[in-house]
Structure formats: C-alpha cells, structure tokens
Amino acid sequence: MFNKKEKRKNSEIGKNNRLHIIMTIVFLLSLALICKLFILQILKYDFYTGIASEQHQFFSKLSPKRGKIFMQDGRNDNEKLYPLATNKDFALIYAMPNKIEDPQKTAEAIYEILDKENVEKEVNKLLEEDEFFAISTSTSFLSAQGEKKIEEAFSGKKIEEFKEIKKTLEIEWRKEEILKKYFEKFSKKDDPYEPVKRKIEEDQAKKIMELKLPGMDYSLESFRYYPEFNIGSHISGFVGFNDSGMSGKYGLEGFFDSELSGTEGSIKAERSAEGEVIIISDREYKKPQDGSDLILTINRTLQFNACRELRFSVEKHQADGGVVVIMDPGTGALLAICSYPDFDPNNYSEVKDSMIFNNSAIFDAYEPGSIFKAFTMAAGLDQEKITPSSVYSDKGFIMVEGWDKPIKNSDYAVAGGHGVTTMTQALEMSLNTATIFVMEKVGPKIFSEYVKNFGFGEKTGIELETEGITNIENLNRKTFRPVEVATASFGQGITATPLQLVTAYAAIANGGILMKPYLVKEIRVTNDKTITIQPQQIRRVISERTSMLLSGMLVNVVDNGHSKLAGVKGYYVAGKTGTAQVAEKGKKGYGDKTIHSLVGYAPVDDPKFVMLTRLDNPKDARFAESSAAPLFGKLAEFLLNYYEVPKER
C-alpha cells in the first residue's frame, strides 16, 4: 500500500518537473523572441528600414546646369550677348573589348579619326620652334635605313630633306606609341568596358560609328565649354576637379562658383520586384535649381582686339608678357581685360606653369614708375601748392636727407639739369626732381593720404579670384623716411596692380571721383529674377578743377613729351608713360629688367575710356615710349572709331 502511494507521488512529481521544464523552455524561447523583435524593430529599425528601402525604393541626385557667362557686344540698344562660358555635350568614346574582333584594325581606325590630325599638328609646331629637334624615340626604334637617311641628309646640308625625314620619323613613333595603348585596351577579351577618350566632338564619334567597328560605342557627357578659347581666359577661369568633384577655379568661375553651380535636386520612387522604377504620384521630388547666369560689362569686340594687339606687341618686342585693361571712367565698368601669356580654358590641364592661370591685370603688383607722377601732381594741384605753370630750378638731381647718393632724372646722363622748368614741362619730360619738389611742398603726410585715397594699398574688390596684395608700407610709417617718400613720388618703392592704376586714372578722367571697378553687369538668378549691379562711387579724391588742370597737363605729355606715339590724330588724348625698373629677387637694388606702361584716356572733355597698356621686359625697346605707347595709340584709335567719337582738333 505504502509503495503504491509512494510510486504515485513520485510519478506526479516527475510530471510536474517535466511541465516546469517545458514551461521554462517556452518562457525562454518567448523571451528570446521578444528580445529579437526588440532588436529588429527598435534597436535596428533604421538599419533594416534602409535595407528594405534599397530593395524597394529608387533614389537619385539630380544635377543642376551650371550657369553661363556672357559678354556683350554692340553699342547702346543694339547690344547682343555672346557666351564666354557655357555647357556643351561631348562624346565619351568607349570600347567593349569582349566584342572586338580585330584589336589592331580597330586601333588603327580609331587613331585615324581621333589622333592623326593632332599628332601632325604637334610635330609641325615642334619643327617651327626648333627645326633640329631631338626625335622623341630611342635609336632602337630607327631602322638602319632611317639613320642612314638622316645622316646623309644632314651631312649633305639638305636641310629640307633632313627636316622632312625627322618629321616623318617623329610622327611614326608617336603613332606607334598611341597604337600600342589602344591595342592593349582592345585585346582584353574578358573586359566588357574600357574608356578610350573623353571630351570628343560628337561629329568625330559619329565618324567612328559609321565604320561599324564591333565593340566601339560612345555616350554623351556635359562639360564646361569656352567658345572664345584663349580670348578672355583670365576673366572666365575654368571648371576643374577637386576632392568633392567639379568646381570653379580662378577668374569668375572661382569667384562665383556657388552662384554658377546652382543647387542639387533629388528624386525618390518605388521599385518593382523586377527592379524597375515605378513612377507613383507620391514620390519625393526635389527639383534642381540651375546656376545663375552672369552678364558681363566686357565688350566682345574690344576684348578681341585688345587681346590680339597685346599678343602682337609682346611678340614684336620679345617681351615676357603684357597687360591691357580698358575701363569706362564714368562708371568703373571694365570693357576689356587681357593678360598674356594666356591659355585655353577648354584644355587647362595642358598648361605646364600654373602661374599662367593668374590674371596679371589684378595679380601682378609692380613698381609703376613714372605713370605714378600724375598722382603726385594731383596732390600738389588739389592742395593749391602748385599750378601747371609753377616753376622750380632743375639741376638734374637732388640730394635727400638720410641718403648719401643723388636721386637723378632718367635723362641726367644726356641732358643734365633743365634749369627753370614749369610743372607742365617737368611732367612732359618726366623729371623725378619735379615730383620730389611737389611732394615736399605738399608734405609727406598729406601726400600719403592722397595716395591712399586714390585706392592704393588696398584691394579693389573686383569679382575675380587671386587679386594681388599691393605694398605702400613706405607711406604707412609713423615716421616717414625722406628717401622712401621721395622715391614714392615717382613710383618707386611702392607697388600697384594694373587695375589699381587704371581705376586711379579714371578718377582723374571723370572729374575726381574714385569708382569701384566691376565686371558683372547682371546676375540672372532665374528667368524672372535679375540682380542688376549699379556703378558705385567710393569717394571724391580731387576737385573737378584739379581734374581739369591735370588732364590738360597730361594732354601736353602726349603732344610734347615721351608719349607722342600714344596720340591719335584729331583728338585730345591724355596719358603718361612709365619705364619701371624691376627689383631683383633676393638682392638689394634693381636688375636689368624693366616694365613699360602707359595709362591714358580720351577724348579729354568727355572720356569714353581709360586704358593701361603694359609690356614686361621688352628686349628691343629701352623706354615705354617705344613699346607701350604705340600699343596704346593703336588701341585708342580703334576705340575712338568704335564709339564714333567726332574729331575735335
């Protein structure tokens, strides 16, 4: 009896234990499931939602169109717009090597269309620069027969035959190198895609398609395009690559990069089970905002002629470079800006020296020399310390306190002293002693204030990247050093950019008011919104009377002084030359290099333009009257004819 009860009890305990175990297991599984759901639905919600979105949703960024940059042309109501920078579709030529049947034949066909003409142009240019250029290839490429032909032609002084052989060999070598690269790409039998060349004109791409070469195709890509090529390259700058993609570099492209770039848009939609995009009404869509267009004050006709004549003058005088800046003195609007050497912004990567990207008109600060004398005379006239007919006695040199050497006139070795001389005559002859005389009459402190009021020592704020910093520290000291102020009076020991000089002369030309130079006339944000830039007065620098008197003196400089070649028959032209020495880097004093400049305006009674011409270190001219002056005169005549200004004398 006892045993039966005991067995029943033990059996019930066993059942209870099994039940507890099962319940525990169920509880633990439920807990694990709850934890898993918590992790999936709470902790990793964003993660799995993202995966699901990738599988079922489509998202893409929408690129805006970069704004265009326009020059204007024509006069008054007949103005037309011409693109300086725009967007253009180019072809990306690509190969599908796994479909190419004959790599060698394909390579030769592609070379004929994409490379042959450029290779021949490059070799011809090489011959023009150096008819005895070294052949690019190693001698192992030349056949014994080729070497023999070169040797025979050279030894027999058959120069034309010699040049032709070298040209042929150079072209053949370059062709072989290009074909090797193409063949290597086209021979990758398992490769479904190889880019061949980008930024190709679509016409060339179509010629390739006409050959019906297996495994060759193209697609279109939008690139920045500069229709004027080198003309205006320093104004536009270019669009180049950086770590975050494409962005504007230098010029307007750099300065207005955010405005030109616009704002990205985006699109979000659903995908079907097959991965196709389903256009549904509630998809998220953010329209891209295209970049703003810039309308410039630059006149296309003036820009083209100024840049062309500058290049001719640089080449004629074997100068290192040059600048032309033309401004409307009444408004400060820039009509043309040219710097040489220039570059093609469509092919900016081919430029070997990145310094060429800097616009010399705003970047290169230099000691202006005698063109600065007009500002010293302006201070003297405005303070009524002198008149155009005031006289002083010129010995040809002057001793300045604290300096043991005489400061001489540029013509001292030839002319010595000029004796009793009027201020007008002194400006005509560009006498250093005269400007020192005027500066001392005015006083260093007041002279320094006039220089600053003319805008020197500070940036103009022009809408271009890389505007340079100028130096007038000699006129900022608490205690002036007599020799430094003396040399500053005739433009030495201080620096200015061409744009600063043009802007300051514009103040003389327009009655005494310094205007802010500007380049952008309008910013067209959208089709119905335009921001118009108005001319901006900075301050009055000199009185109208001073402006009139100084203008008369500067006309005499052109008529009777060193600036005769800047004159235009039938017009009153005001101007002043400057032949500035260049300080040697790392050494004290000046070297043999010079910079020749002329700044002037016409017609004097109602100036249509103020212009600077500058040539850097011309080799065949000693003074600016033989280099910068004739360049000015030629362009001034063109400008007066362009604006149809009636002759006045």
Describe this structure in words.
The chain has 649 residues and is an alpha+beta fold. The chain folds into three domains: 2-57; 97-192, no CATH class; 297-642, Beta-lactamase (3-Layer(aba) Sandwich). The strands form seven sheets. Strands 2, 3, 4, 5, 11, 19 and 20 form a seven-stranded mixed β-sheet that branches. Helix 4 (116-129) runs antiparallel to helix 6 (159-186) and helix 13 crosses helix 20 (544-560).
Regarding quaternary structure, what we see is single chain
Tell how many strands the DSSP assignment holds: 24
The main pleated sheet reads as: 7 strands, mixed
Strand content: 15-25%
**What coarse outline follows from CA principal-axis ratios?**
extended
What is the SS-derived class? Answer: alpha+beta
How far apart are the first and last residues' alpha carbons, in Å? 151 Å
Unreliable runs: none
Q: What would the average pLDDT be, to the nearest integer?
A: 89
Number of helices: 21
Q: Assign the CATH class of the largest domain.
A: Alpha Beta
Work out the radius of gyration. 37 Å
Total individual domains: 3
Q: Report the CATH superfamily of the largest domain.
A: DD-peptidase/beta-lactamase superfamily
Query: What is the CATH topology assignment of the largest domain?
Result: Beta-lactamase
| Residues in helix, % | 25-40%
* CATH architecture call of the largest domain: 3-Layer(aba) Sandwich
